[in-house]
TrEMBL record, chain A:
<feature type="domain" description="RagB/SusD">
    <location>
        <begin position="348"/>
        <end position="475"/>
    </location>
</feature>
<comment type="similarity">
    <text>Belongs to the SusD family.</text>
</comment>
<keyword id="KW-0472">Membrane</keyword>
<dbReference type="InterPro" id="IPR033985">
    <property type="entry name" value="SusD-like_N"/>
</dbReference>
<keyword id="KW-0175">Coiled coil</keyword>
<dbReference type="Pfam" id="PF07980">
    <property type="entry name" value="SusD_RagB"/>
</dbReference>
<feature type="coiled-coil region">
    <location>
        <begin position="360"/>
        <end position="387"/>
    </location>
</feature>
<feature type="domain" description="SusD-like N-terminal">
    <location>
        <begin position="75"/>
        <end position="236"/>
    </location>
</feature>
<keyword id="KW-0732">Signal</keyword>
From TrEMBL, chain B:
<dbReference type="InterPro" id="IPR008969">
    <property type="entry name" value="CarboxyPept-like_regulatory"/>
</dbReference>
<dbReference type="InterPro" id="IPR039426">
    <property type="entry name" value="TonB-dep_rcpt-like"/>
</dbReference>
<feature type="domain" description="TonB-dependent receptor-like beta-barrel">
    <location>
        <begin position="384"/>
        <end position="766"/>
    </location>
</feature>
<dbReference type="InterPro" id="IPR036942">
    <property type="entry name" value="Beta-barrel_TonB_sf"/>
</dbReference>
<feature type="domain" description="TonB-dependent receptor plug">
    <location>
        <begin position="116"/>
        <end position="222"/>
    </location>
</feature>
<keyword id="KW-0812">Transmembrane</keyword>
<keyword id="KW-0813">Transport</keyword>
<dbReference type="InterPro" id="IPR037066">
    <property type="entry name" value="Plug_dom_sf"/>
</dbReference>
<dbReference type="Pfam" id="PF07715">
    <property type="entry name" value="Plug"/>
</dbReference>
Length: 478, 981
C-alpha cells in the first residue's frame, strides 16, 4: 500500500491549498469589521443613524390617540386600534415605534464605539479629532432623544418607582468585557425613572461638552446642533420634573434663537422658512410622507381635525391656517404637513424641536418649580401669542392652575400633530376627553386620568424574546 | 474457469451437431468497451437452436433456412437482435441494460453494481422520458419513482415543478434536491432549456448511503442525470418529430351567464347592471344592450395551443472514440393567448481513450429558449388572464362598435385583453452545461480522474406595457428589462482503487472538490414611453421632478464549497456487501465557528437468494436486504451571508450612509438530517414479478429558524439552528408481466409512497403562523389554520362559525382559527403504468395519484363573494340566502365573506398523465427499404386527458398550499414519429 501514499498526500495538499475559496466576501452588503475604518465611515454611520429615526411613529401615536382628531367614515382601518384606545401588546404601531427607536440607538452606539476605537488606534488623525468629537455629540444626543421618545410612549409617568425603558449604551453592566449596546443577545430590564434619566442626562452633558456652539443654519438644522441639544435637555428636564434645569436650558435657547414670527409662520410649514426650528428631519420623496398619517389624498381621509381643535383656533390666529384646511366641496383635512413648496402633497420635513416649545417649557416649569414665577409664565405666554395671534392683547393671569391650563392649551394649539398632546395629558395626569362632536359609536369619548392606556404596551415580540422586560400594567404578560 | 471450459465444450457440441446442413455464421460479441463477453446466449429466433460464446466472445452457429434472426442475450445486458442476410460474420456489441436486475447503478461520483447496492436508488431510463411534450424534465419524472413527489406549479410551457423527495425536511431552508448533470451540479428550477431526449438515465438517490457523499447538499436527495453517449463501431442517425396541440381541461365550477348575473346585480342593487334603473329610459336602453350580450371570455383568452418539435441525433463511434450529438427544436404554445416557449438545444458528447490508459470525456449542452408569458401569473390580479376569464362580466363586449378595446373603469376583460395584446412579456434564457474529465490509470488498479464542469444560465426578462393602453395611460406606459446570470463551476479530483481478491472485492475512492457559484443581476424599469418607440429602451423618457424617473436595480453575490471525501465498498462474492462514505464539507455560508462539518454513512446488503437454502428456489428468483444509516446536510435556500454582522446603505435626505442590517450568527451551521433506510429487493418467477420495499426514518435537526432577539439590540432576529422535524415513510415498487400469450404481452407496474411528516421542535416557539397555515410542533408541515365554517343561519342568512370549544357563533374573530383541516403536503403519492404490446403495436397508459391532502381554494373568496359584484360570480351565488327559511351554503350579501374552512378542499387526485399508442414497423417493412431505415416508429399520445378529483379549483396539482388562479396544466394531444437511419 505504501506506493499509494504519495497520491493521498497529493490530494490533501491540493485540498489545503484550495480552502481559501471559502472566504467569499459579500459585494452588496458591508461586513461589520469593514464598516468603520475612517472618519468618513463614521460620518456614513451617523447618517444612517439619522436615517433610522422615525419621529413619525410617536407623532402618529400621540395624535391618533388624542382629542385632536376625529375618525371619519372614510377611514379604512388605519390607526383604529390607537384611536379607540384598544391597543394590545400585538399592536403594530407600538412594535414599529419600539423597534425603530432602538434600531437607531443601536446604530448610534456602533458609531460612538467606532469613534473611540479609531481615535485610540490612530485611524482618526489629530486634525480630525474635533470633527469626530462633533459626531460623537450628535450621536449621544440622538441616543438620548430616541430614549426620551421611548420613555414618553412606553414609560410610566415620572416617579421614583415608576418604570422607564431600558437604556442602551456602551457601559458593560454585565461584566463580560463587551459594551452592552453592541451585544445582540442582551435581554435588558426596564430602568426606574431616576436611573433612566440619570443615564439620559449623562448623554446630554457629554454631548454638550464636545460640541461647538454655533447658530442654527441650513447646514446643521437637519442634525443635532448645540441648541437642539439644549432643547432636548429642556424637554427631558420637563418630563423628569427637573424644573430648574428645564428653565436654564430653555433660557439658553430663547436668548440666542429667535421665535418664528407671525409672518414667517405659514412658510415654516411649507419648508420654505425655518426660523424658530432647532432640529428637523430631512424628508424626501423616498421617505414616508408624514401628512399621510391623516390624509392619503383629498378623498381618502383616515383622520380629520377634531371639531374641538377647530373651534379652539380663531381666524385671527395664524395657526388657524396652518393646522387644518377645508377645500371647496371637500372635507376638512389636517394641514400641518401640506407638502413643500412645489413638491408632493403631504411630504414635509419633520420638525422635532422648535423655539416656541422652549417658551412654553419655561412657562410651565416656572409655575411648577419651588419658587413659582407667575410673571415669567405670563411673559412667555404673551411672547409666543404675540407672534401667533393678530393684534394679541395679553391679560395677565394670576391664578397658577388657570395659567397652567392656558399653557397646556397653548401647547395644544402650537404643537397639534407634532407628537405632544397625548403625552402632555399623561405627564400632567389629566383625563383625555373628546368632544361629543368628535366621538361616539365605536369611538370612545373619555380616557380617565391615569388609565393604563396612557402607556403603550411593550410590544409582544419584545416580551417574547426578552424574559427580563416588564410589561406595562393592564396588558397581560403575553 | 471450470465453468468456462464447460461452456466452451457445450458450444462445441452444439455447433458440430447442426453444422454442415445450413449456413454457418461466426462472430464476436463484445461489450461497449470492446471487451469480449464470454457465455452470451445466441439463439436462432423461432427455433430451439443456439449456442454460447467462448472465452474470447466468439461463437459459431449454423442457421437453418427461413430463420434469419439471431438473438443475443446475456444477464445485465440488453438483448440484441440481428437479421442475417448474406453475411457470414456477425459481430455484435451488447450494452448494459439499465432496467434489468443486474445493472450498474450510477450513484454520483461512482457507479455500483446493483447486486452490491446497499442504498435506496431509483432509476428512470430514457425510454420512460423520451417524446413527452413537456419542456422541463423535472415534470417528466412525475410518478416514475417511489417517494419522489413532483407537482407542477404552472401550465406555462417550460415552467418547472416543485420536487420533494421523501417529504419536506426543512422549514426555513430549501427542500429541493440537488441536481447533477454529467458530474456538474446544475441550478434547480432552470430546466426549460435542457432537452430531456438527450438524457440516458436519471438516478434518484434517496437515502444517506447514496447521498451522504454529497454532504452538505444531499439531505433533500440527489438527482443524477447522465446524458447519452455513442456506441463503439457504429453510426446511427435518428430523426424525431412531433405535432400536437394543448387545450384547457374543463374546470369543476361554473360562472354566471349574462341573464343570471344581471338578475343577481338587480337583486342587490349594485354592479354595472345592478345600479341601472329599468324604469328609467336611458338606463333601460343600456340594460337592454347588456342583456343582448353574452361574451364567453374563455374564447377570448384561452385557445388551442399548437405544438411541434423536431430533433436530429447522430451517434456512434470508432474503435477508440464515441460521440453523441443532437440538435432539437421545440415550439409549444400554451393554452392562454400569448404564452409559449420556443427552444433550440444542441448537445455534443465525446468519449475517447485514444491514448493508452487515458480516457477523456467531454459533455456539453447549449440551449436557447424564448417564451412569452402571461401577466401576473398565479396571482389574484385583475390582469391575470386566468382570473379575468372568470371575473369579466359576460354582458361586456371585448370590443366597442368601432372595433377598439372596450376599456374603462372596472372593465376587467377588455382592459386585460388590451394589456396582453398591446404589451410584451418575454423571458429568454441561454443555458449551457459543459464538463470535461480525464481518467488516467496510474497502475492497475489505481486511477486518478479529474473533472471540471460549468453550469451557466442567463435569463433575460422583458416587460412592456403600452402607453396607449387604458391601465397604463396615466403612467405613460413602462418598459423594463432585467438580466439574471447564474454561473457555477466545479472541479473534482478522484483517486480510485478497485480490485478483486478471489471472492473479495474492494473499492476505495478518495475525492477532493471545489465548487463556486456567483449570481449577478441587474435591471431597470422606465416610464413615460414614447408611443412611436414601443418595446425598446430608446422609448423610455428620462423623467423629471421625481416623476417617471427610471428605476435601476441589481445585485451580486456568491458562495462556495470545499470538500474532501472518501467512499469504500467491500463485497464478498457479491453476497455480503458493505459500503461506507465520509465527506468533510466547508461552506462559505457558515460562520467561522461552524464552517466545516463531517457527514458520513454506512450501508450493508445481503443477497439472500445466493445462500444455499434459496439458490434453488423456483418461486423466488431474487431476494436482497439492504440497510443504511447516515447523516446528510442541507444549506440551500438561505442567504449567503447570514453568519456575518452586516451593514447596508441607509439614506437620510440626499446623503447615503451605512446602517446595521443583520446581526449575524457566527454559530450558523448546516441542517443535519439523520437518515435510516431498510429495503428489500425481490423478484419472483424468473423475474416476471419484481419490486422493492423501502422503509425510512429521517430526522432533520438544527433546522434553520429565525431566532427572535430583544428589539432593544437594534435587531429583530437572527438565522439560527433550532428545531427538529421527522419524516417517516414506506415505499413500494412493483412490476409484473401479467400476461404473455404469444406475441401479446401485458406488463403493469407502479409505485406508491407514504410519508408522515411531523414537526418535533421549533426551538424558541412551539408554533407560528404562516398565512392561512400554521407551523406547530406535533403537526405536519403545511397544516391549514383557519376558522371552521358552520353554515348559514336559515333565519337571517348570517354566516356561522364553530368556536374553539365547539360552540356555534356568528363572531368570526371570536371563533378563531383551528388546525384541524389537514395539510397541503401530500402524504400518499405514486404512479402506475400498464403496457400492452402485440408485435409492433404498443399501448402505454401512465397514471399518477396523490392522496390525503387539501388545499386552500382562494378562488372561492372571489367567485362566491358579493363584495366582488363588479366581477362575474359563481353560479352557486344564485343560491344565496334571500329570505328566512332558505337553507343554503351561501350567506346573505349583507354579511362580510371571510376565509373559512369551507375554502379548504380535498385536493386528492388521480390523473391519466400519459397515454400513448405506438407502432414500430416490422423488420419486413424496414427490409423493403433496403436498409435505409434501421427503425421506424409512429405514435399518438395524450397528456393529462382525465383527472379525477373533488377539488373545484382549476387543477388539484400545484406546488403550494393555495389555489390562486394558477396557470393550469394543459391537456396535450400529439402525434409523432421517430426514424432511425
Amino acid at each position: 500500500m505504501r506506493k499509494y501514499y504519495k497520491y493521498i498526500i497529493a490530494i490533501l495538499l491540493l485540498s489545503s491549498g484550495c480552502e481559501s475559496i471559502l472566504d467569499v466576501e459579500p459585494t452588496d452588503i458591508i461586513i461589520e469589521d469593514q464598516a468603520f475604518k475612517s472618519l468618513r465611515d463614521v460620518e456614513a454611520g451617523a447618517i444612517a443613524a439619522y436615517g433610522f429615526v422615525s419621529e413619525e411613529n410617536i407623532i402618529e401615536f400621540s395624535s391618533l390617540a388624542s382629542d385632536d382628531v376625529l375618525r371619519p367614515s372614510t377611514n379604512s382601518g388605519h390607526g383604529v386600534q390607537i384611536n379607540s384606545w384598544a391597543y394590545v401588546a400585538s399592536n403594530n404601531e407600538a412594535a414599529d415605534l419600539w423597534y425603530n427607536a432602538y434600531r437607531s440607538i443601536a446604530q448610534a452606539n456602533r458609531v460612538l464605539y467606532s469613534i473611540d476605537q479609531l481615535i485610540n488606534n490612530g485611524e482618526i488623525k489629530n486634525d480630525e479629532i474635533s470633527s469626530a468629537n462633533h459626531l460623537k455629540s450628535e450621536m449621544l444626543a440622538l441616543r438620548a432623544h430616541q430614549h426620551l421618545n421611548l420613555y414618553r410612549a412606553m414609560g410610566e409617568k415620572y416617579g421614583n418607582d415608576a418604570l422607564a425603558v431600558p437604556y442602551m449604551d456602551l457601559e458593560d453592566n454585565n461584566n463580560n468585557n463587551r459594551p452592552d449596546g453592541l451585544e445582540t443577545d442582551l435581554k435588558p430590564a426596564r430602568l426606574k425613572c431616576p436611573e433612566f434619566f440619570e443615564e439620559l442626562f449623562d448623554d446630554i452633558d457629554q454631548a454638550l461638552q464636545n460640541i461647538t456652539i454655533e447658530t442654527v443654519n441650513s447646514q446643521n438644522i437637519y442634525r443635532f446642533n448645540y441648541y437642539a441639544i439644549k432643547a432636548l435637555e429642556a424637554r427631558a428636564a420637563l418630563y423628569s420634573e427637573k424644573y430648574d434645569r428645564a428653565i436654564n436650558a430653555s433660557n439658553d435657547v430663547i436668548n440666542n434663537v429667535d421665535l418664528c414670527s407671525f409672518n414667517d409662520y405659514e412658510n415654516l410649514w411649507l419648508d420654505s422658512e425655518s426660523s424658530g426650528v432647532l432640529f428637523k428631519l430631512n424628508r424626501t420623496v423616498n421617505d414616508d410622507f408624514i401628512g399621510r398619517i391623516w390624509t392619503f389624498n383629498l378623498t381618502d381621509i383616515s383622520f380629520a381635525p377634531s371639531n374641538e381643535l377647530v373651534d379652539l383656533l380663531s381666524p385671527y390666529d395664524i395657526r388657524y391656517y396652518t393646522t387644518f384646511y377645508k377645500p371647496e366641496n371637500g372635507e376638512r383635512i389636517v394641514y400641518k404637513y401640506p407638502g413643500k413648496v412645489g413638491g408632493y402633497w403631504f411630504l414635509n420635513d419633520v420638525k422635532v424641536y422648535r423655539v416656541s416649545e422652549m417658551y412654553l417649557i419655561r412657562a410651565e416649569a416656572s409655575l411648577k418649580k419651588i419658587n413659582i414665577d407667575i410673571d415669567q409664565a405670563n411673559e412667555d405666554l404673551m411672547s409666543l401669542r404675540n407672534e401667533r395671534i393678530y393684534l394679541y392683547n395679553h391679560n395677565t393671569i394670576n391664578d397658577k392652575d388657570q395659567l397652567i391650563n392656558e399653557i397646556l392649551l397653548e401647547r395644544r394649539k402650537e404643537f397639534a400633530y407634532e407628537g405632544h398632546r397625548f403625552f402632555d395629558l399623561k405627564r400632567n395626569q389629566l383625563p383625555l376627553e373628546r368632544s361629543p362632536l368628535d366621538c361616539g359609536g365605536s369611538i370612545p369619548c373619555e380616557l380617565e386620568a391615569g388609565n393604563f392606556r396612557f402607556n403603550l404596551p411593550i410590544p409582544q415580540e419584545e416580551v417574547f424574546a426578552n424574559k427580563n422586560i416588564q410589561q406595562n400594567p393592564g396588558y397581560g404578560q403575553n | 474457469m471450470y465453468r468456462l471450459l464447460v461452456l466452451i465444450f457445450l458450444s462445441f457440441i452444439l455447433t458440430t451437431e447442426v453444422s454442415g446442413q445450413n449456413k454457418v455464421i461466426t462472430g464476436t460479441v463484445t461489450d461497449q468497451d470492446n471487451e469480449p463477453i464470454p457465455g452470451v446466449n445466441v439463439i436462432i429466433r423461432g427455433t430451439a437452436q443456439g449456442t454460447v460464446t467462448d472465452v474470447n466472445g466468439n461463437y459459431k452457429l449454423a442457421m437453418p433456412p427461413g430463420y434469419p434472426i439471431l438473438v443475443f442475450s446475456f444477464v445485465g445486458f440488453m438483448n440484441e437482435e440481428v437479421r442475417v442476410t448474406t453475411e457470414n460474420t456477425v459481430d455484435v456489441s451488447l450494452y448494459p441494460d439499465i432496467q434489468s436486475l443486474t445493472e450498474l447503478v450510477i450513484t454520483g461520483y461512482t457507479t455500483e453494481k446493483l447486486d452490491r447496492l446497499s442504498g435506496s436508488v431509483g432509476t428512470v431510463e430514457s425510454k420512460q422520458m423520451e417524446d413527452i411534450p413537456i419542456p422541463s424534465f423535472d415534470q417528466v419524472l412525475q410518478g416514475k419513482t417511489a417517494g419522489l413527489y413532483i407537482s407542477s406549479g404552472s401550465g406555462q410551457p417550460g415552467s418547472s415543478a416543485t420536487v420533494r423527495l421523501r417529504g419536506s425536511g426543512s422549514i426555513g431552508a430549501g427542500n429541493t434536491p440537488l441536481y447533477i448533470l454529467d458530474n456538474v451540479p446544475i441550478s434547480a428550477g432552470e430546466f426549460s432549456t435542457l432537452n430531456v431526449n438527450d438524457f440516458e438515465s436519471i438516478s434518484v438517490l434517496k437515502d444517506a448511503s447514496a447521498t451522504a457523499i454529497y454532504g452538505s447538499r444531499g439531505s433533500n436527495g440527489v438527482i443524477v442525470i447522465t446524458s447519452k453517449s455513442g456506441k463503439k463501431n457504429s453510426a446511427s442517425l435518428t430523426y424525431r418529430m412531433q405535432y400536437g396541440f394543448s387545450q384547457q381541461a374543463r374546470e369543476r365550477f361554473e360562472m354566471m351567464n349574462t341573464q343570471e348575473k344581471i338578475a343577481f346585480e338587480q337583486y342587490i342593487g349594485e354592479g354595472f347592471a345592478g345600479e341601472l334603473d329599468p324604469n328609467n329610459a336611458v338606463d333601460r336602453k343600456i340594460l337592454e344592450q347588456y342583456k343582448r350580450t353574452n361574451t364567453n371570455w374563455k374564447d377570448i383568452f384561452i385557445r388551442k395551443g399548437k405544438l411541434q418539435s423536431h430533433e436530429l441525433a447522430f451517434s456512434g463511434g470508432g474503435e477508440k472514440t464515441t460521440f453523441y450529438t443532437s440538435l432539437a427544436y421545440l415550439n409549444q404554445e400554451g393554452q392562454a393567448i400569448k404564452s409559449d416557449l420556443e427552444r433550440y438545444t444542441l448537445r455534443l458528447n465525446l468519449s475517447s481513450n485514444a491514448i493508452e490508459n487515458l480516457k477523456i470525456d467531454f459533455n456539453s449542452s447549449f440551449g436557447y429558449s424564448n417564451s412569452n408569458v402571461i401577466p401576473s401569473e398565479g396571482q389574484t390580479s385583475i390582469i391575470n388572464p386566468f382570473a379575468v376569464v372568470y371575473w369579466a362580466n359576460p354582458y361586456i363586449t371585448p370590443y366597442d362598435e368601432n372595433g377598439d378595446y372596450n376599456t374603462g373603469v372596472g372593465l376587467t376583460g377588455p382592459n386585460t385583453l388590451e394589456i396582453i395584446n398591446e404589451g410584451q412579456r418575454t423571458n429568454d434564457q441561454i443555458k449551457s452545461v459543459v464538463s470535461t474529465s480525464a481518467q488516467y490509470n496510474l497502475a492497475e488498479p489505481l486511477y486518478i480522474k479529474t473533472t471540471f464542469g460549468i453550469d451557466f444560465t442567463q435569463t433575460n426578462f422583458e416587460r412592456f406595457n403600452s402607453p396607449d393602453s387604458y391601465l397604463y395611460e396615466n403612467s405613460g406606459g413602462s418598459f423594463s428589462q432585467s438580466q439574471f446570470q447564474d454561473f457555477s463551476y466545479i472541479w473534482t479530483n478522484l483517486l480510485g482503487y478497485s480490485k478483486n481478491f478471489k471472492d473479495h472485492f474492494i473499492e476505495i475512492t478518495l475525492g477532493h472538490e471545489i465548487f463556486a457559484n456567483s449570481i449577478n443581476s441587474f435591471g431597470y424599469t422606465g416610464y413615460g414611453i414614447n408611443p412611436k418607440l414601443p418595446g425598446t429602451p430608446e422609448g423610455v423618457s428620462p423623467g423629471a421632478d421625481g416623476i417617471n424617473i427610471p428605476e435601476i436595480e441589481g445585485f451580486k453575490e456568491g458562495n462556495s464549497l470545499h470538500s474532501l471525501f472518501a467512499i469504500a465498498n467491500y463485497s464478498i462474492k457479491d453476497k455480503y456487501n458493505l459500503k461506507a462514505s465520509i465527506r468533510r464539507d466547508g461552506s462559505s455560508r457558515f460562520g467561522v465557528n461552524n464552517r466545516f462539518a463531517i457527514f458520513w454513512s454506512v450501508g450493508a446488503s445481503w443477497n439472500i437468494k445466493e445462500e444455499a437454502f434459496l439458490i434453488n428456489s423456483q418461486l423466488l428468483s431474487g431476494l436482497k436486504i439492504r440497510a443504511s444509516y447516515g447523516t446528510v446536510g442541507n444549506q440551500s435556500g438561505i442567504d449567503n451571508f447570514q453568519s456575518l454582522g452586516t451593514y447596508s446603505p441607509v439614506s437620510y435626505g440626499s446623503n447615503q450612509g451605512n446602517g446595521i442590517l443583520y446581526a449575524g450568527n457566527p454559530d450558523l451551521k448546516w441542517e443535519v438530517s439523520n437518515q435510516a433506510n431498510l429495503g428489500i429487493d425481490f423478484s419472483f418467477l424468473n423475474d416476471k414479478i419484481f419490486g422493492n420495499i423501502d422503509l425510512y426514518n429521517i430526522i432533520t435537526s438544527d433546522l434553520f429558524v429565525q431566532y427572535q432577539l430583544s428589539r432593544t439590540t437594534g435587531f429583530e432576529s437572527i438565522r439560527s439552528n433550532e428545531g427538529k422535524m421527522s419524516n417517516k415513510g414506506i415505499e413500494l415498487t412493483l412490476n409484473a408481466d401479467i400476461l404473455t400469450i404469444g406475441d401479446f404481452i401485458w406488463t403493469v407496474g407502479g409505485n406508491i409512497a407514504y410519508n408522515k411528516n411531523e414537526i418535533l421542535d421549533l426551538g424558541q416557539v412551539t408554533e407560528f403562523e404562516r398565512g392561512t397555515s400554521i407551523v406547530k410542533e406535533g403537526l405536519p408541515l403545511g397544516t391549514h389554520y383557519i376558522t371552521e365554517w358552520a353554515g348559514v343561519n336559515p333565519s337571517n342568512g348570517e354566516p356561522l362559525y364553530v368556536g374553539q370549544n365547539g360552540e356555534i357563533t356568528n363572531n368570526y374573530d371570536a371563533a378563531g382559527p383551528k388546525a384541524i383541516f389537514g395539510t397541503s403536503q401530500a402524504p400518499l403519492t405514486g404512479g402506475f403504468f400498464s403496457t400492452l404490446s402485440f408485435k409492433g403495436l404498443k399501448l402505454d397508459g401512465f397514471f399518477t395519484f396523490t392522496s390525503g391532502y387539501s388545499r386552500f381554494n382562494n378562488q372561492l373568496f372571489f367567485s362566491e363573494n358579493p363584495n366582488f359584484i363588479t366581477s362575474n360570480l359563481s353560479k352557486k351565488m344564485t343560491t344565496m340566502w334571500k329570505e328566512p327559511g332558505d337553507i343554503t351554503e351561501i350567506q346573505s350579501y349583507q354579511y362580510e365573506r371571510q376565509f373559512s374552512s369551507k375554502d379548504i378542499e380535498d385536493a386528492s387526485f388521480l390523473r391519466l398523465r400519459n397515454v400513448r399508442l405506438s407502432y414500430s414497423f416490422s423488420e419486413k417493412l424496414i427490409e423493403q427499404t433496403k436498409g435505409i431505415f434501421k427503425g421506424l416508429e409512429i405514435y399518438v399520445q395524450g397528456q393529462n386527458l382525465f383527472t379525477w378529483t373533488e377539488f373545484t379549483g382549476f387543477d388539484p396539482e400545484d406546488d403550494n398550499n393555495i389555489a390562486q388562479f394558477e396557470y393550469p396544466a394543459s391537456k396535450v394531444y400529439s402525434v409523432g414519429l421517430s426514424v432511425k437511419f
